[in-house]
């Protein structure tokens, strides 16, 4: 019963909270845009660049899935796992962007 109470508190009374379709769609688009920025910055080698390209494609697919009617049929646990995965991807992309070399030698 404690786990159920915890989930209700974390997800809100309706059980959706941060795992609803609009939130996941918005986050997927944000991760996709960050992945695009990583590629533009050239902050990665060829292997990482390929992984980032695949990530962009997956984010496009997830955004389409989240905006469709089938998304509501996913179990709450799966939607929570998607949200946590998106958060991890976003953090990794931020670290990659922060580690990118400056585009110029001049101090701004």
Descriptive notes:
The protein is mainly alpha-helical. The chain has a domain at 21-95. Helix content is 70%, strand content 0%. It contains four helices and no strands.
- The helicity comes to over 70%
Shape, please? elongated
For the biggest sheet, the summary is:
none
**Runs with pLDDT <50, length 5+?**
12-16
What gyration radius follows from the Cα positions, in whole Å? 17 Å
Q: How many strand elements?
A: 0
What's the tally of helices? 4
End-to-end span in angstroms? 55 Å
Structural class: mainly alpha
User: How do the SSEs run, as a string of H and E?
Assistant: HHHH
Record the SSE blueprint.
Layout: H1 2-11, H2 21-41, H3 46-66, H4 76-99
């Amino acid at each position: 019963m404690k786990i159920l109470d915890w989930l209700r508190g974390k997800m809100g009374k309706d059980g959706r909270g941060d795992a609803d379709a609009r939130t996941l769609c918005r986050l997927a688009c944000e991760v996709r845009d960050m992945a695009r920025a990583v590629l533009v910055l050239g902050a990665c080698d060829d292997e990482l660049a390929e992984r980032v390209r695949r990530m962009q494609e997956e984010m496009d697919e997830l955004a389409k899935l989240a905006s469709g009617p089938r998304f509501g049929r996913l179990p709450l646990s799966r939607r929570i796992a998607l949200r946590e995965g998106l958060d991890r991807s976003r953090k990794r992309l931020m670290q990659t962007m922060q580690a990118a070399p400056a585009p110029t030698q001049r101090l701004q």
